[in-house]
Amino acid sequence: MSFLRNLVSTIPRFARVGPPTIQRCLRTPFAYQRSVLPSKFYHHGSPGAHSRIAVVGTGNVGASIAYALVLKDVANEILLVDANRSLAKGQRLDLDDASLFSATHVKDVTLQEAGKADVIVITAGARQKENESRADLIDRNYQVLESIISAMQPIQKDAIMLLVANPVDVLTYFAQELSGLPRNQVIGSGTYLDSSRLRGFLSEVLEVNNESIHSPVLGEHGDSQFISWNTANIAGQPILSFPRVANLDKELVREKIAGKAMDIIKLKGSTYFGIATCTASLCETIIKNRRDIRPLSVYVDRLGAVMSMPAKLGWYGVEEIYELNGDPGEEQKLVDIAQEFKKTCKKYEHPNRTE
């Protein structure tokens, strides 16, 4: 067995099938369907393949993500990194016990070692205080992000970097600028959890399994996020055609979804189980090249900003972005969010990007 492992380690990282697909923005309605790929594309997670996911920051969120990854057997190795080396080691020892029921191996490593992982999840940052806006976190989190990315260099050129720390849209942009990776390889968790919360709420209203509901929350992951009611559907049927939904107070629903995180923070100090599950799901989508469509923090070229839009995610990162089509009101919201985003980012200096 050790001979086979050594043999596998000499093989280039998952034999590529052609060059990465260039990110494209489609001015079409959302297409919520899984791409059906030839079997030759499913080279990730195949027998003998070795995959590594680094989790930077092993506090409540990072440890919960690592635990979810172990339970789901997403990767062969989980690499833990924290400024507090004792904490990282303690989390590793604890997760060792959980990994006895998994095929995943957990290690505590340095930032430079983390930079060689296939997927790099960054959760490290200052904890959000009660009633503190995400924008107020930027000053405290930017320096943390800059030091992390600097210490990881040189980052593996094919790595996918996933930002989970808040404000996730702005920090995703900063990571795109600082890492030197192509923009489609640096993404944020965005409104994926918010969209999942909305699906859960609507499933109770309609008494339908939440997996049958497609209801994206778009824009900023924060106060200005909005629900794309015009594209929400169940089995292709517009969700607004259901009286139970049509009669809802839409703004109240938006506030309920956007405010749930703060409700949790008031009660227990922070949120981590929900975002950990979402992050593990995104990592699985990448490692297994599933090409699922998820609302993620991505750079939208025509708006010049990072915000949550439905994006096809796979081994090469974001392959396509599915934009809104035909709703002037929702389009204006995106424009307004982009303008605020640009104002925020002007306060900071970044290295010149080389595409």
From TrEMBL:
SUPFAM superfamilies: LDH C-terminal domain-like (SSF56327), NAD(P)-binding Rossmann-fold domains (SSF51735). One of its GO terms (biological process) is lactate metabolic process. Gene3D superfamilies: Lactate dehydrogenase/glycoside hydrolase, family 4, C-terminal, NAD(P)-binding Rossmann-like Domain. InterPro entries: L-lactate/malate_DH (IPR001557), L-lactate_DH (IPR011304), L-lactate_DH_AS (IPR018177), Lactate/malate_DH_C (IPR022383), Lactate/malate_DH_N (IPR001236), Lactate_DH/Glyco_Ohase_4_C (IPR015955), NAD(P)-bd_dom_sf (IPR036291). Keywords: NAD, Oxidoreductase. Residues 191-349 form the Lactate/malate dehydrogenase C-terminal domain. It is an enzyme of class 1 (oxidoreductase). Its EC number is 1.1.1.27. The active site is at 221 (proton acceptor). GO terms for cellular component: cytoplasm. NAD(+) binds at residues 57-62, 82, 141, 164-166. It catalyses: (S)-lactate + NAD(+) = pyruvate + NADH + H(+). GO terms for molecular function: L-lactate dehydrogenase (NAD+) activity. CDD domains: LDH_like. Belongs to the LDH/MDH superfamily. LDH family. This is L-lactate dehydrogenase. It comes from Phycomyces blakesleeanus (strain ATCC 8743b / DSM 1359 / FGSC 10004 / NBRC 33097 / NRRL 1555).
